[in-house]
Design a protein that fits this description.
- By secondary structure, the protein is of the alpha+beta class.
- The chain folds into three domains: 3-121, PAS domain (Beta-Lactamase, 2-Layer Sandwich); 126-192; 202-383, Histidine kinase-like ATPase, C-terminal domain (Heat Shock Protein 90), CATH 3.30.565.
- 42% of the residues lie in helices and 18% in strands.
- It has a five-stranded antiparallel β-sheet, sandwiched between helices. It has a five-stranded mixed β-sheet with strand order 7-9-10-12-11, covered by helices on one side. A two-stranded antiparallel sheet has the order 6-8.
- Helix 6 runs antiparallel to helix 7 (165-192) and helix 7 (165-192) runs parallel beside helix 11.
- It starts with a helix and ends with a strand.
C-alpha cells in the first residue's frame, strides 16, 4: 500500500474519532490536531498548530494540562490517565481525561511528530459524580444521628452484667453490625472529605511488616499464602497512613477474591523519585463489563440475588465498593497513579458463575497451578 494511501487512512481515522488528538515535536511545537481536538478545546487548529504549547496554555488556570505536557516533553514521563479541569477561551470550564505517549524513535528533531496527547471530554461524567457525591453526603448525614442514638443505647446495655444469655447473643449481633455501620460511616467521611497530608520520611519495610502482620491475624480463618519481598528503604513522598490505607485496601480486596489454597503477592519497588506498589492475586478476576465500574462505589461484581456482605476477608465477601472508591478519591487528592489489569477465571466467565471458594474442591482443575493460570487481578499504585 502506498504511503499516500496510508496517510489518507490515518487522516480518516483521526477525523472520525471522538477523542481529541494532538501531536507535538521535540521543541514543544504543536504539529497537528484532529477536529475533535478543535471542538473540545474550543479553538480552530490554526490558532495553535505551529505554536509552542506553552504559548497556548497561558491561562494560569490551565497549569494542570501544562504540567502534564512539561513532564512528557521535558522529562519523558508519560501519563496513562489523568483528570484535570480545562478553561477554554470562551470562558467555559470542562473536565478532561488526558493520556500522553512518546514515540519510540532514536532521533528527535524539530518538526518530527514525536509526542501524542489524547484527551476526552468527561464533563458529563464528572457532573454525574457530583450528583452521586451529593446523594452520598446526604445519606451520610442522615445516618449520623440514628447511629449515634443506637451507639449510646448499646453502650448502656453493654454495662449490664445480668442480661439473659439469649439477650447477650442479640446484643453481640447488634454490636457487630454497629461496628460495620461505623466503619462504613468512616469510609464515607473520607470519601467526602479527603484528608490532606504532609509527606514524611518513613521506613517502608517497617510499615509493610506491621500492616501484613495485622492482615494475617484478621484473615487467619482463610487459607491464603502471602508472598512479598523485603523493601528496606526510606521514602519521603508520602506518609505511613496513606501507605497503610493503600496496602490494606488492595490486599483485603485481593484476599476476598482469592479462593482458599491461593496466594496474594505484594511487590513494593523503589524508583528514583517514586514508589511502585503492585498487589497481585490469582483469584476469580473481574469480568470486562465490571472493569469499567470497579472504582465507582456501590458497585458489586456479583449478581444482585447472590450479593451479601460477609465477614471481612471472607471469600466473595461482597462489600459496597466504598473502599476502592475511597482509594480513587485519595489518589486524586494526593496525586498518585492508580490502575489495574484483570482477567476473569476462564471456568467462570459470567458474573452469575460461582467459584467454590476452595481450590481443592474446584471441579474444573486438577492442580493449584491450573487455578493460578486461569485468572486473577493486579492493582498498581505509583507514589511520587
Amino acid at each position: 500500500m502506498s504511503s499516500d494511501r496510508l496517510e489518507n487512512i490515518e487522516q480518516i481515522i483521526l477525523n472520525s474519532i471522538t477523542e481529541g488528538v494532538i501531536t507535538i515535536d521535540c521543541s514543544g511545537k504543536i504539529q497537528s490536531a484532529n477536529p475533535s481536538a478543535e471542538r473540545i478545546l474550543g479553538m480552530e487548529s490554526s490558532v495553535f498548530v505551529d505554536h509552542h504549547y506553552g504559548n497556548i496554555l497561558d491561562d494560569l488556570r490551565n497549569l494542570g494540562l501544562k504540567k502534564i505536557m512539561d513532564r512528557l516533553i521535558q522529562d519523558g514521563i508519560q501519563t496513562s490517565h489523568s483528570e484535570i479541569d480545562y478553561y477554554r477561551k470562551d470562558g467555559q470550564k470542562i473536565n478532561l481525561a488526558i493520556s500522553t505517549s512518546a514515540l519510540n524513535i532514536d532521533v528527535c528533531f524539530d518538526g518530527l511528530e514525536t509526542f501524542v496527547i489524547v484527551f476526552r471530554d468527561i464533563t458529563a461524567f464528572k457532573a454525574l459524580d457530583k450528583v452521586r457525591n451529593k446523594a452520598l453526603n446526604h445519606i451520610s448525614h442522615e445516618m449520623a444521628t440514628p447511629i449515634s442514638v443506637i451507639r449510646a443505647s448499646v453502650n448502656s446495655l453493654n454495662l449490664i452484667d445480668s442480661l439473659p444469655e439469649i439477650q447477650q447473643r442479640h446484643l453481640e449481633r447488634i454490636n457487630r453490625n454497629l461496628d460495620r455501620l461505623l466503619k462504613i460511616e468512616a469510609v464515607v467521611e473520607q470519601i467526602l472529605y479527603p484528608i490532606h497530608f504532609l509527606p514524611v520520611q518513613f521506613n517502608v519495610n517497617d510499615v509493610l511488616k506491621k500492616i501484613l502482620d495485622r492482615i494475617k491475624q484478621e484473615s487467619a480463618h482463610r487459607k491464603i499464602e502471602f508472598r512479598f519481598s523485603e523493601a528496606d528503604f526510606l521514602f519521603d513522598k508520602s506518609d505511613p497512613s496513606t501507605f497503610e490505607t493503600i496496602l490494606v485496601t488492595l490486599v483485603k480486596n485481593a484476599i476476598e477474591n482469592t479462593p482458599d489454597g491461593g496466594f496474594v503477592e505484594i511487590q513494593v519497588t523503589p524508583n528514583r523519585d517514586s514508589l511502585a506498589i503492585a498487589v497481585l492475586d490469582r483469584g476469580v478476576g473481574i469480568t470486562l463489563e465490571n472493569q469499567n465500574f470497579i472504582f465507582d462505589g456501590f458497585h458489586h461484581t456479583q449478581e444482585t440475588e447472590d450479593y451479601a456482605t460477609r465477614k471481612p476477608y471472607d471469600f466473595n465477601a461482597g462489600g459496597k465498593g466504598l473502599e476502592l472508591l475511597r482509594l480513587k478519591v485519595i489518589s486524586e487528592t494526593h496525586g498518585f497513579d492508580l490502575s489495574f489489569e484483570s482477567s476473569r477465571c476462564a471456568f467462570i466467565p459470567l458474573p452469575t458463575d460461582q467459584c467454590p471458594g476452595n481450590i481443592e474442591v474446584c471441579p474444573h482443575i486438577n492442580t493449584r497451578d491450573e487455578c493460578f493460570a486461569s485468572g486473577g487481578s493486579t492493582f498498581y499504585v505509583k507514589l511520587r
